[in-house]
Amino acid sequence: QPQLQESGPGLVKPSETLSLTCSVSGGSISSSEYYWGWIRQPPGKGLEWIGNIFHSGSAHYNTSLKSRVTISVDTSKNQFSLNLRSVTAADTAVYHCARLLRATDVFDVWGHGTMVTVSS
Amino acid sequence: QSALTQPASVSGSPGQSVTISCTGTSIDVGNYDLVSWYQQHPGKAPKLIIYEVTKRPSGISDRFSGSKSGNTASLTISGLQAEDEADYFCCSYALSPTSIYVFGTGTRVTVL
Q1: Where does the pLDDT of residue A39 fall: very low under 50, low under 70, confident under 90, or very high at 90 and above?
Q2: Cα(A53)–Cα(B111) distance, rounded to whole angstroms?
Q3: What is the pLDDT of residues A77-89, one digit of tens each?
Q4: Which chain B residues are within 8 Å of A94, Cβ to Cβ?
Q5: Which residue from B minimizes the CA distance to A42?
Q6: d(CA B2, CA A14)
Q7: CA proximity to A73, closest of A7, A16, A21, A3
Q8: For residue A20, what are the CA distances in angstroms to A48, A54, A67, B78?
Q9: Nearest to B103 among A4, A47, A108 (CB)
Q10: What values do phi and psi take at A55, rounded to 5?
């Protein structure tokens, strides 16, 4: 079973860029069976899909965040990354990375998640 | 795109059954058999327990079952055990201009 691990700063200042990386172990990020995604959960609220990326670099985003989000992939490092620009307190959340199985549109493997707080 | 609606909490005694509902709309739950359910214990990664409405991944107990009627999907946990105490949330593919995946609000299951 593959494992996903998020990493990045736990505190980001308002108006700056939130940057997280997801490291994939136990499987190849270059597999054509999967997309790789980011999902977040603000404190006390439900989960929100941020976006997915394929190993080719083709990405899909939640349009409510699209103007501020970029997801990228580094197949040589078996990692993918999230950049969220111009953050505000509303972006404070636990950020999960996850693997999306294309055949069934299901997030079948998740990382534990990392808490990111936006505060000065 | 609004979140799918789940009850905030459900509870049951060991051995009983509990059912969690997940209510969406005709552009998500009602339009696709692509509803999945996840279990999350505190501090742990979410774990897939049901996909495509009724299917269980390998290794998931048959005490977990899923169903759907109209715009509402449901997860039933039979023979409730102490280890089932966790948060559960649903997810659906969506025909939406904003978000192609929409999640439920989450339900805390308490074993009395």
Answers
A1: very high
A2: 38
A3: 999 999 999 999 9
A4: none
A5: B105
A6: 26
A7: A21
A8: 16, 17, 17, 39
A9: A47
A10: -65, -20
